[in-house]
Design brief:
This protein is α+β, with helices and mostly antiparallel strands. It folds into 2 domains: 122 residues, lambda repressor-like DNA-binding domains (434 Repressor (Amino-terminal Domain)); 151 residues, Beta Barrel (Porin), CATH 2.40.160. The protein contains 8 helices and 8 strands; from the N terminus they run ααααααββββββββαα. The chain has an 8-stranded antiparallel β-barrel with strand order 1-2-3-4-5-6-7-8. The protein is elongated, with a radius of gyration of 31 Å. The model has no long low-confidence stretch (mean pLDDT 83).
C-alpha cells in the first residue's frame, strides 16, 4: 500500500470521526431541547389543570364550564385528567372569556386575588350590555288588548333606565339598579309619577359576548297603577317593526300552557333561546 492511499484512508477516517462527533453533538443538543420542552410542557400542563379546576369551582359544575368554553364534558374531563391539552383556539377562548392573559394562565397558578377578581366579573355581567335596547310587551290597558307597546332600556354605570314610549314621546320613565344572583338578574326601578316596576331575567350566557336580546319578566303597575301586572318582555338590540312582525311578537310574548290549572309561571331557557334566535334572524 502506497503512502498516498494510506493518507487518503486516514483522512477519511478523521472526517468520519468529525462527522460522527458533529452528529453526536447535534443529537445531544436535540435531546437537551426535547428534555427542556418536556419539562416546560409538564409545568404548563400542571398549571393549566390547577387553573382549570379552579374555574370549574367558580362555575359550580364541570358541565357549566364545558358549555361556557364550547367543549364536551368528556373532553373537559380529559383536560382535567391531563390526558389531553386544548388547542390554541380553545386556550385563547378560555382566556378571553375570563379576561386572563394566556402566558399567565399557563405559566402561573391563579392566586386567590385572581379568582376573586374573576368571580366578581362573573357575578356582575353588567359589562355585557350595549348602552341601549328596544323592548316589547303587551299593553296593560284592557281597552288595548293585544296591542304591543315599545320601550327602551338604557344601561350606564351599573344603573338602568326603562322608558315606555309612544312615537317620539316618553309615556313612563323608570330608573334604578341592577342586582345579580347566581343565575338571575333583576332590575329594580321606580318613578315618582308612575310607581315601581321590576324586570327579572336569566343571567345571559357570556359566550355570546355582548347581549343581543331575549326574554324577561316584567312586573308593571297597570290601569293607572291600581293593579299589579306580570308579563313577558322581549329585549332586542335592534328595533323591530311591530306591524310586520306582530304574529311573531305575539307568540313570543304569550304565556302558553296545556294544563287546566297554572300554579306558577316560569321563563324557560328554551323560550329565551327562541327569542334570541328570532332577533338573530332579523340582523
Amino acid at each position: 500500500m502506497n503512502k498516498g492511499t494510506k493518507s487518503t484512508k486516514d483522512m477519511n477516517h478523521i472526517d468520519n470521526e468529525k462527522l460522527y462527533a458533529t452528529k453526536k453533538d447535534s443529537l445531544n443538543q436535540i435531546n437537551i431541547v426535547k428534555a427542556s420542552k418536556n419539562s416546560l410542557f409538564e409545568d404548563i400542563s400542571n398549571n393549566f389543570i390547577y387553573n382549570l379546576k379552579k374555574l370549574i369551582q367558580l362555575e359550580g359544575t364541570q358541565k357549566q364550564l364545558a358549555k361556557k368554553i364550547g367543549v364536551s364534558e368528556d373532553l373537559l374531563s380529559k383536560y382535567k385528567a391531563g390526558d389531553a391539552f386544548p388547542s390554541i383556539e380553545t386556550l385563547a377562548y378560555i382566556c378571553n372569556v375570563y379576561n386572563i392573559k394566556i402566558d399567565r394562565f399557563i405559566r402561573l397558578r391563579l392566586s386567590a386575588l385572581d379568582l376573586e377578581s374573576i368571580e366578581k366579573r362573573l357575578n356582575s355581567n353588567n359589562d355585557i350590555f350595549f348602552h341601549s335596547y328596544y323592548c316589547y310587551f303587551f299593553a296593560t290597558n284592557m281597552g288595548k288588548e293585544d296591542s304591543i307597546h315599545e320601550g327602551i332600556l338604557e344601561f350606564e354605570n351599573g344603573r338602568i333606565q326603562f322608558k315606555i314610549i309612544s312615537g317620539d314621546s316618553v309615556m313612563k320613565n323608570f330608573s334604578g339598579s341592577i342586582n345579580n344572583s347566581e343565575k338571575i338578574m333583576t332590575f329594580n326601578m321606580q318613578s315618582v309619577e308612575d310607581g315601581i316596576t321590576y324586570l327579572s331575567m336569566r343571567k345571559p350566557n357570556i359566550n355570546k359576548g355582548k347581549y343581543v336580546g331575549g326574554l324577561a319578566m316584567l312586573f308593571l303597575p297597570s290601569d293607572a297603577n291600581s293593579k299589579p301586572c306580570c308579563q313577558k318582555l322581549l329585549i332586542s338590540n335592534i328595533r323591530i317593526n311591530r306591524h310586520t312582525y306582530y304574529e311573531d311578537l305575539k307568540k313570543l310574548l304569550t304565556f302558553n300552557s296545556s294544563k287546566a290549572e297554572i300554579r306558577n309561571v316560569k321563563l324557560s331557557s328554551f323560550e329565551d333561546e327562541k327569542a334570541y334566535n328570532f332577533i338573530e334572524s332579523l340582523l
